[in-house]
Amino acid sequence: MRKKIISYGRHLIDQADIDAVTEALQSGWLTGGPAIVAFEEAVARLCGAAHAVAVCNGTAALHCAMHALRVAPGDEVIVPPMTFCATANAVVYQGGEPVFADVAPGTLLLDPASVEASLTPRTKGIVAVDYAGQPCDYDALRAIADAHGLFLAADACHSLGGAWNGRPVGSLADVTCLSFHPVKHITTGEGGMILCDDPLLAETMRRFRNHGIDADPARRAEQGVWRYDMGFLGHNYRITDIQCALGGSQLDKLPQWLTRRREVAAMYAQALRNMADVSPLEEVPGATHALHLYVVRIASRPKPLRDAVLSGLRARGVQANVHYVPANRHSYYRQRLGDGASGTPVCDKAFEEILSLPMHAGLTDEDVRHVLWALGEALLEARA
Prior knowledge:
- With 384 residues, this protein is of the alpha/beta class.
- Helix content is 40%, strand content 15%.
- The chain folds into two domains: 7-251, Aspartate Aminotransferase, domain 2 (3-Layer(aba) Sandwich); 254-383, Aspartate Aminotransferase, domain 1 (Alpha-Beta Complex).
- It is built from 14 helices and 15 strands.
Protein backbone atom coordinates (compact mmCIF):
# COMPACT_ATOMS: atom_id res chain seq x y z
CA MET A 1 0.00 0.00 0.00
CA ARG A 2 1.33 3.43 -0.96
CA LYS A 3 1.78 5.66 2.08
CA LYS A 4 0.29 8.72 0.39
CA ILE A 5 -3.38 8.18 -0.38
CA ILE A 6 -4.66 10.12 -3.38
CA SER A 7 -8.32 10.98 -2.78
CA TYR A 8 -10.83 11.57 -5.56
CA GLY A 9 -11.43 15.12 -4.27
CA ARG A 10 -10.40 17.37 -1.41
CA HIS A 11 -10.28 20.98 -0.28
CA LEU A 12 -7.28 23.32 -0.10
CA ILE A 13 -6.87 25.78 2.78
CA ASP A 14 -4.15 28.43 2.93
CA GLN A 15 -3.18 31.23 5.29
CA ALA A 16 -5.42 33.73 3.51
CA ASP A 17 -8.41 31.50 4.28
CA ILE A 18 -7.40 31.21 7.92
CA ASP A 19 -6.94 34.98 8.17
CA ALA A 20 -10.38 35.59 6.63
CA VAL A 21 -12.05 33.27 9.13
CA THR A 22 -10.14 34.86 12.02
CA GLU A 23 -11.30 38.30 10.90
CA ALA A 24 -14.90 37.09 10.83
CA LEU A 25 -14.56 35.65 14.32
CA GLN A 26 -13.33 39.03 15.56
CA SER A 27 -15.89 41.10 13.63
CA GLY A 28 -18.76 40.89 16.11
CA TRP A 29 -20.89 39.00 13.58
CA LEU A 30 -20.96 35.20 13.68
CA THR A 31 -24.17 34.85 11.68
CA GLY A 32 -26.53 37.12 9.80
CA GLY A 33 -23.80 39.68 9.16
CA PRO A 34 -21.87 41.43 6.36
CA ALA A 35 -19.63 38.51 5.37
CA ILE A 36 -22.70 36.67 4.10
CA VAL A 37 -23.81 39.60 1.97
CA ALA A 38 -20.28 40.12 0.62
CA PHE A 39 -19.99 36.45 -0.37
CA GLU A 40 -23.42 36.44 -2.02
CA GLU A 41 -22.57 39.53 -4.03
CA ALA A 42 -19.20 38.16 -5.13
CA VAL A 43 -20.66 34.88 -6.38
CA ALA A 44 -23.52 36.69 -8.12
CA ARG A 45 -21.03 38.92 -9.98
CA LEU A 46 -18.95 35.95 -11.05
CA CYS A 47 -21.99 34.06 -12.30
CA GLY A 48 -23.84 36.92 -13.97
CA ALA A 49 -26.86 36.72 -11.67
CA ALA A 50 -28.79 39.58 -10.13
CA HIS A 51 -29.44 37.86 -6.78
CA ALA A 52 -27.75 35.26 -4.60
CA VAL A 53 -29.03 33.57 -1.44
CA ALA A 54 -26.47 31.69 0.67
CA VAL A 55 -27.63 28.71 2.72
CA CYS A 56 -26.17 25.97 4.90
CA ASN A 57 -25.62 23.33 2.18
CA GLY A 58 -26.40 22.39 -1.40
CA THR A 59 -29.43 20.32 -0.43
CA ALA A 60 -30.92 23.34 1.33
CA ALA A 61 -30.29 25.34 -1.85
CA LEU A 62 -32.27 22.81 -3.89
CA HIS A 63 -35.10 22.79 -1.34
CA CYS A 64 -35.25 26.61 -1.28
CA ALA A 65 -35.45 26.62 -5.06
CA MET A 66 -38.25 24.06 -5.22
CA HIS A 67 -40.23 26.01 -2.61
CA ALA A 68 -39.77 29.35 -4.40
CA LEU A 69 -40.77 27.75 -7.72
CA ARG A 70 -43.99 26.60 -6.02
CA VAL A 71 -43.58 22.87 -6.40
CA ALA A 72 -46.57 21.36 -4.60
CA PRO A 73 -48.40 18.05 -4.15
CA GLY A 74 -49.54 16.73 -7.51
CA ASP A 75 -46.70 18.38 -9.44
CA GLU A 76 -44.14 16.41 -11.41
CA VAL A 77 -40.59 17.65 -11.89
CA ILE A 78 -38.28 16.04 -14.42
CA VAL A 79 -34.82 15.18 -13.10
CA PRO A 80 -31.97 12.98 -14.36
CA PRO A 81 -31.13 9.81 -12.46
CA MET A 82 -27.36 10.36 -12.74
CA THR A 83 -27.11 12.66 -9.75
CA PHE A 84 -26.84 12.62 -5.99
CA CYS A 85 -30.19 11.76 -4.42
CA ALA A 86 -30.65 15.31 -3.04
CA THR A 87 -31.74 16.56 -6.50
CA ALA A 88 -34.82 14.36 -6.47
CA ASN A 89 -35.32 14.58 -2.71
CA ALA A 90 -35.85 18.36 -2.89
CA VAL A 91 -38.88 17.76 -5.10
CA VAL A 92 -40.29 15.24 -2.63
CA TYR A 93 -39.76 17.64 0.29
CA GLN A 94 -42.34 19.90 -1.40
CA GLY A 95 -44.79 17.07 -1.99
CA GLY A 96 -43.96 16.75 -5.68
CA GLU A 97 -42.98 13.67 -7.66
CA PRO A 98 -39.62 13.40 -9.42
CA VAL A 99 -39.89 11.93 -12.92
CA PHE A 100 -36.61 10.42 -14.07
CA ALA A 101 -35.67 11.19 -17.66
CA ASP A 102 -32.67 9.41 -19.16
CA VAL A 103 -29.24 10.82 -19.90
CA ALA A 104 -27.23 11.11 -23.10
CA PRO A 105 -24.77 8.21 -23.50
CA GLY A 106 -21.67 10.27 -24.26
CA THR A 107 -21.94 12.88 -21.51
CA LEU A 108 -24.44 11.40 -18.98
CA LEU A 109 -26.18 14.79 -19.00
CA LEU A 110 -29.95 15.11 -19.09
CA ASP A 111 -31.16 14.13 -22.58
CA PRO A 112 -33.59 16.71 -24.01
CA ALA A 113 -35.32 14.02 -26.12
CA SER A 114 -36.00 11.97 -22.98
CA VAL A 115 -37.28 15.11 -21.25
CA GLU A 116 -39.78 15.63 -24.07
CA ALA A 117 -40.90 12.02 -23.79
CA SER A 118 -41.39 12.40 -20.01
CA LEU A 119 -43.74 15.38 -20.15
CA THR A 120 -47.27 15.00 -18.81
CA PRO A 121 -50.04 17.48 -17.98
CA ARG A 122 -48.74 17.46 -14.38
CA THR A 123 -45.18 18.50 -15.29
CA LYS A 124 -44.20 21.66 -13.40
CA GLY A 125 -40.53 22.02 -14.28
CA ILE A 126 -37.15 20.58 -15.20
CA VAL A 127 -34.04 20.29 -13.05
CA ALA A 128 -30.89 19.99 -15.15
CA VAL A 129 -27.80 18.54 -13.45
CA ASP A 130 -24.38 19.64 -14.68
CA TYR A 131 -22.92 16.22 -14.05
CA ALA A 132 -19.16 16.16 -13.32
CA GLY A 133 -19.00 19.90 -14.05
CA GLN A 134 -20.11 20.03 -17.69
CA PRO A 135 -23.12 22.29 -18.32
CA CYS A 136 -26.18 20.73 -19.90
CA ASP A 137 -27.63 21.82 -23.24
CA TYR A 138 -29.49 24.77 -21.77
CA ASP A 139 -30.62 26.04 -25.16
CA ALA A 140 -32.53 22.83 -25.84
CA LEU A 141 -33.86 22.59 -22.29
CA ARG A 142 -34.95 26.23 -22.27
CA ALA A 143 -36.84 25.71 -25.53
CA ILE A 144 -38.73 22.78 -24.00
CA ALA A 145 -39.46 24.69 -20.79
CA ASP A 146 -40.72 27.76 -22.62
CA ALA A 147 -42.85 25.76 -25.04
CA HIS A 148 -44.66 24.03 -22.17
CA GLY A 149 -44.71 26.80 -19.55
CA LEU A 150 -42.28 25.05 -17.21
CA PHE A 151 -39.59 26.33 -14.89
CA LEU A 152 -35.97 25.43 -15.62
CA ALA A 153 -33.70 24.94 -12.61
CA ALA A 154 -30.00 24.12 -12.66
CA ASP A 155 -28.37 21.81 -10.15
CA ALA A 156 -24.94 23.32 -10.77
CA CYS A 157 -23.35 21.91 -7.63
CA HIS A 158 -20.57 20.51 -9.88
CA SER A 159 -20.11 23.37 -12.31
CA LEU A 160 -19.12 26.63 -10.60
CA GLY A 161 -16.86 28.43 -13.08
CA GLY A 162 -18.30 26.62 -16.09
CA ALA A 163 -20.19 28.15 -19.01
CA TRP A 164 -22.53 27.27 -21.86
CA ASN A 165 -21.91 29.06 -25.18
CA GLY A 166 -20.02 31.79 -23.34
CA ARG A 167 -22.69 32.37 -20.69
CA PRO A 168 -21.59 31.55 -17.15
CA VAL A 169 -23.20 28.91 -15.01
CA GLY A 170 -25.58 30.86 -12.79
CA SER A 171 -27.15 32.77 -15.68
CA LEU A 172 -28.58 29.84 -17.65
CA ALA A 173 -31.74 28.86 -15.74
CA ASP A 174 -34.53 30.42 -13.70
CA VAL A 175 -32.68 29.37 -10.55
CA THR A 176 -29.22 27.85 -10.14
CA CYS A 177 -28.10 25.87 -7.09
CA LEU A 178 -24.48 25.63 -5.94
CA SER A 179 -22.69 23.56 -3.30
CA PHE A 180 -19.62 24.49 -1.25
CA HIS A 181 -18.95 21.05 0.24
CA PRO A 182 -15.23 20.36 0.90
CA VAL A 183 -14.78 18.36 -2.33
CA LYS A 184 -16.28 21.10 -4.53
CA HIS A 185 -14.35 23.84 -6.35
CA ILE A 186 -14.48 26.15 -3.34
CA THR A 187 -15.65 25.36 0.15
CA THR A 188 -17.33 26.98 3.12
CA GLY A 189 -17.06 23.73 5.08
CA GLU A 190 -20.68 23.00 4.34
CA GLY A 191 -22.68 25.51 2.36
CA GLY A 192 -24.77 26.28 -0.69
CA MET A 193 -26.22 29.12 -2.69
CA ILE A 194 -29.09 29.86 -5.05
CA LEU A 195 -28.72 32.33 -7.93
CA CYS A 196 -31.53 33.99 -9.87
CA ASP A 197 -32.57 37.21 -11.58
CA ASP A 198 -36.10 37.42 -10.17
CA PRO A 199 -36.21 39.58 -7.01
CA LEU A 200 -39.43 37.93 -5.80
CA LEU A 201 -37.87 34.46 -6.02
CA ALA A 202 -34.80 35.72 -4.17
CA GLU A 203 -36.85 37.29 -1.39
CA THR A 204 -38.94 34.14 -1.02
CA MET A 205 -35.79 32.04 -0.65
CA ARG A 206 -34.27 34.47 1.88
CA ARG A 207 -37.39 34.09 3.98
CA PHE A 208 -37.54 30.32 3.50
CA ARG A 209 -33.97 29.93 4.83
CA ASN A 210 -35.06 31.81 7.99
CA HIS A 211 -38.26 30.00 9.06
CA GLY A 212 -40.42 32.03 6.63
CA ILE A 213 -39.86 35.20 8.69
CA ASP A 214 -40.17 38.48 6.82
CA ALA A 215 -37.07 40.23 8.23
CA ASP A 216 -33.84 38.87 9.67
CA PRO A 217 -32.17 40.45 12.76
CA ALA A 218 -29.71 42.49 10.69
CA ARG A 219 -32.51 44.01 8.62
CA ARG A 220 -34.60 44.76 11.71
CA ALA A 221 -31.61 46.42 13.38
CA GLU A 222 -30.94 48.50 10.26
CA GLN A 223 -34.57 49.63 10.14
CA GLY A 224 -34.78 50.25 13.88
CA VAL A 225 -37.76 47.93 14.37
CA TRP A 226 -38.30 44.81 16.45
CA ARG A 227 -41.50 43.30 15.08
CA TYR A 228 -41.44 40.43 12.59
CA ASP A 229 -43.90 37.97 11.13
CA MET A 230 -43.69 34.37 9.92
CA GLY A 231 -45.78 34.51 6.77
CA PHE A 232 -45.21 30.90 5.70
CA LEU A 233 -43.54 27.78 7.02
CA GLY A 234 -39.82 27.84 6.32
CA HIS A 235 -36.68 26.19 7.66
CA ASN A 236 -33.51 27.16 9.45
CA TYR A 237 -31.17 26.94 6.46
CA ARG A 238 -29.00 29.88 7.46
CA ILE A 239 -25.24 29.97 6.90
CA THR A 240 -22.70 31.72 9.14
CA ASP A 241 -20.41 34.67 8.56
CA ILE A 242 -17.52 32.38 9.47
CA GLN A 243 -18.34 30.06 6.60
CA CYS A 244 -18.91 32.89 4.14
CA ALA A 245 -15.62 34.55 5.07
CA LEU A 246 -13.92 31.29 4.12
CA GLY A 247 -15.95 31.09 0.92
CA GLY A 248 -15.03 34.63 -0.10
CA SER A 249 -11.34 33.90 0.37
CA GLN A 250 -11.65 30.63 -1.55
CA LEU A 251 -13.45 32.37 -4.40
CA ASP A 252 -10.39 34.53 -5.06
CA LYS A 253 -8.45 31.36 -5.93
CA LEU A 254 -11.09 29.78 -8.17
CA PRO A 255 -9.49 30.84 -11.52
CA GLN A 256 -6.12 29.28 -10.70
CA TRP A 257 -7.77 26.15 -9.32
CA LEU A 258 -9.85 25.74 -12.49
CA THR A 259 -6.68 26.09 -14.54
CA ARG A 260 -5.01 23.33 -12.54
CA ARG A 261 -8.02 21.05 -12.91
CA ARG A 262 -7.82 21.52 -16.69
CA GLU A 263 -4.11 20.69 -16.65
CA VAL A 264 -4.84 17.48 -14.76
CA ALA A 265 -7.64 16.60 -17.16
CA ALA A 266 -5.32 17.13 -20.13
CA MET A 267 -2.76 14.73 -18.62
CA TYR A 268 -5.45 12.12 -18.10
CA ALA A 269 -6.89 12.55 -21.59
CA GLN A 270 -3.49 12.22 -23.26
CA ALA A 271 -2.68 8.99 -21.41
CA LEU A 272 -6.11 7.43 -21.86
CA ARG A 273 -5.87 7.64 -25.64
CA ASN A 274 -3.49 4.69 -25.45
CA MET A 275 -5.23 2.70 -22.71
CA ALA A 276 -7.62 -0.06 -23.73
CA ASP A 277 -10.97 -0.59 -22.02
CA VAL A 278 -11.16 2.88 -20.48
CA SER A 279 -12.58 6.07 -21.96
CA PRO A 280 -13.46 9.50 -20.56
CA LEU A 281 -16.88 11.08 -20.98
CA GLU A 282 -17.40 13.29 -24.01
CA GLU A 283 -17.00 17.05 -23.85
CA VAL A 284 -19.46 18.86 -26.07
CA PRO A 285 -18.83 21.96 -28.20
CA GLY A 286 -20.12 25.09 -26.51
CA ALA A 287 -19.58 23.81 -22.97
CA THR A 288 -16.83 25.12 -20.69
CA HIS A 289 -16.29 22.18 -18.34
CA ALA A 290 -15.63 23.01 -14.68
CA LEU A 291 -14.19 19.51 -14.02
CA HIS A 292 -15.52 18.80 -10.57
CA LEU A 293 -15.13 15.09 -11.38
CA TYR A 294 -13.09 13.20 -13.95
CA VAL A 295 -15.35 10.30 -14.86
CA VAL A 296 -14.24 7.43 -17.08
CA ARG A 297 -16.08 4.37 -18.31
CA ILE A 298 -14.49 0.97 -17.84
CA ALA A 299 -15.52 -1.46 -20.59
CA SER A 300 -17.85 -4.22 -19.39
CA ARG A 301 -17.13 -6.72 -22.17
CA PRO A 302 -16.24 -9.55 -22.24
CA LYS A 303 -16.82 -9.28 -18.47
CA PRO A 304 -17.57 -6.45 -16.03
CA LEU A 305 -14.31 -4.81 -14.95
CA ARG A 306 -15.25 -1.65 -13.05
CA ASP A 307 -15.47 -3.02 -9.52
CA ALA A 308 -12.23 -4.97 -9.88
CA VAL A 309 -10.47 -1.89 -11.28
CA LEU A 310 -11.78 0.22 -8.40
CA SER A 311 -10.43 -2.31 -5.89
CA GLY A 312 -7.10 -2.42 -7.72
CA LEU A 313 -6.78 1.35 -7.61
CA ARG A 314 -7.54 1.49 -3.91
CA ALA A 315 -4.99 -1.24 -3.24
CA ARG A 316 -2.42 1.04 -4.88
CA GLY A 317 -3.29 4.11 -2.82
CA VAL A 318 -5.78 5.74 -5.22
CA GLN A 319 -9.16 6.47 -3.63
CA ALA A 320 -11.19 6.47 -6.81
CA ASN A 321 -14.96 6.48 -6.41
CA VAL A 322 -18.25 5.96 -8.24
CA HIS A 323 -20.58 8.90 -8.89
CA TYR A 324 -23.35 8.00 -8.51
CA VAL A 325 -25.68 5.25 -7.58
CA PRO A 326 -28.48 6.61 -9.81
CA ALA A 327 -31.15 8.28 -7.74
CA ASN A 328 -33.90 6.07 -9.15
CA ARG A 329 -32.04 2.90 -8.10
CA HIS A 330 -32.17 3.70 -4.41
CA SER A 331 -34.67 1.52 -2.57
CA TYR A 332 -36.68 4.55 -1.43
CA TYR A 333 -37.47 5.59 -5.01
CA ARG A 334 -38.04 2.04 -6.22
CA GLN A 335 -40.61 1.61 -3.45
CA ARG A 336 -42.14 5.07 -3.91
CA LEU A 337 -42.39 5.15 -7.70
CA GLY A 338 -42.57 1.49 -8.69
CA ASP A 339 -42.44 1.28 -12.49
CA GLY A 340 -41.98 5.05 -12.59
CA ALA A 341 -38.47 4.63 -11.23
CA SER A 342 -37.38 2.53 -14.21
CA GLY A 343 -37.04 3.36 -17.88
CA THR A 344 -33.55 4.88 -17.93
CA PRO A 345 -31.48 2.23 -19.77
CA VAL A 346 -28.63 4.58 -20.75
CA CYS A 347 -28.08 5.57 -17.14
CA ASP A 348 -28.44 1.97 -15.95
CA LYS A 349 -25.70 0.77 -18.31
CA ALA A 350 -23.42 3.68 -17.47
CA PHE A 351 -23.72 3.01 -13.75
CA GLU A 352 -22.13 -0.41 -14.20
CA GLU A 353 -19.09 1.15 -15.93
CA ILE A 354 -18.34 4.59 -14.46
CA LEU A 355 -15.46 5.40 -12.16
CA SER A 356 -14.24 8.78 -10.90
CA LEU A 357 -10.48 9.30 -10.98
CA PRO A 358 -8.94 11.80 -8.55
CA MET A 359 -9.64 15.39 -9.64
CA HIS A 360 -8.76 18.42 -7.55
CA ALA A 361 -6.42 21.40 -7.70
CA GLY A 362 -4.04 19.90 -5.14
CA LEU A 363 -2.94 17.04 -7.41
CA THR A 364 0.72 17.18 -8.46
CA ASP A 365 2.02 15.86 -11.77
CA GLU A 366 3.56 13.00 -9.80
CA ASP A 367 0.15 12.21 -8.30
CA VAL A 368 -1.40 12.08 -11.77
CA ARG A 369 1.33 9.81 -13.08
CA HIS A 370 0.78 7.49 -10.11
CA VAL A 371 -2.97 7.40 -10.74
CA LEU A 372 -2.37 6.49 -14.39
CA TRP A 373 0.16 3.80 -13.47
CA ALA A 374 -2.24 2.38 -10.89
CA LEU A 375 -5.08 2.40 -13.40
CA GLY A 376 -3.00 0.49 -15.94
CA GLU A 377 -1.98 -2.10 -13.35
CA ALA A 378 -5.52 -2.44 -12.05
CA LEU A 379 -6.84 -3.01 -15.57
CA LEU A 380 -4.28 -5.73 -16.23
CA GLU A 381 -5.18 -7.41 -12.96
CA ALA A 382 -8.92 -7.15 -13.63
CA ARG A 383 -8.63 -8.67 -17.12
CA ALA A 384 -6.70 -11.71 -15.86
